Amino acid sequence: RKEVEQDPGPFNVPEGATVAFNCTYSNSASQSFFWYRQDCRKEPKLLMSVYSSGNEDGRFTAQLNRASQYISLLIRDSKLSDSATYLCVVIGSARQLTFGSGTQLTVLP
Amino acid sequence: GAGVSQSPSNKVTEKGKDVELRCDPISGHTALYWYRQSLGQGLEFLIYFQGNSAPDKSGLPSDRFSAERTGGSVSTLTIQRTQQEDSAVYLCASSLGWGRDGYTFGSGTRLTVV
Predict the structure, then answer these.
(1) Residue A27 or residue B106, greater confidence
(2) What is the mean pLDDT of residues A45-64?
(3) Cα of B11 to nearest chain A Cα, Å
(4) Chain A positions touching chain B (beta carbons under 8 Å)
(5) Going by C-beta distance under 8 Å and a sequence separation of 6 or more, which residues neighbour residue B62?
(6) How far apart are alpha carbons A105 and A101 in whole angstroms?
(7) pLDDT tens digit string along A72-87?
(8) Largest alpha-carbon pair distance within chain A?
(9) List of chain B residues with pLDDT < 50
(10) How many CB atoms lie within 10 A of CB B45?
(11) DSSP string covering B50-95, please?
(12) Which residue of B has its CA nearest to A98?
């Protein structure tokens, strides 16, 4: 089993739609969680951190469920510019940084 | 510097040659990671530095790969006797401490072995 698993998609949604991605992790000792965004042929960029209490940044909401070992990202009112690959990232107790394989999102006009 | 700087941005080399890739992290960042990403694939962990030491080298794919970091700053990733399967984008990321606030990536070195 992979340490961090994501549904690779692709997710093709119309503009204005709400879309949700999930990511599961296997190491219960994992300490920090992030969502990164990667555009085609570009480096990953931090989108947001994920906390147990949940956090929201504009149209984006991230949640962490430690009991079930998954994190989620919700994007509301999708824009064309949201089209990218979304990477789930987990930091383990030994400080290793593990990436999911990414979920590809395409927002259609 | 303002961001993580990697050089060269592109490198084309002949099979069997050695290459050296450089990463200059954000000033003051103690943690530094190397990843590689093949076309259309996810990020593959290579090695992690905390300061000048590398607690985790488990991702280096073979003994042709080595990395060092000196002065807690610049890191170099060396690939000896390059093979075609080494072709990928090599990404470096750095963070303050152990990355609780996330990691910043450089724009990568695109290595092509011909």
Answers:
(1) B106
(2) 92
(3) 15
(4) 32, 34, 42-46, 49, 87, 89, 91, 94-102
(5) none
(6) 13
(7) 999 999 999 999 999 9
(8) 44
(9) none
(10) 18
(11) ETTEEEE-TT--STTEEEEE-TTS-EEEEESS--GGG-EEEEEEEE
(12) B45
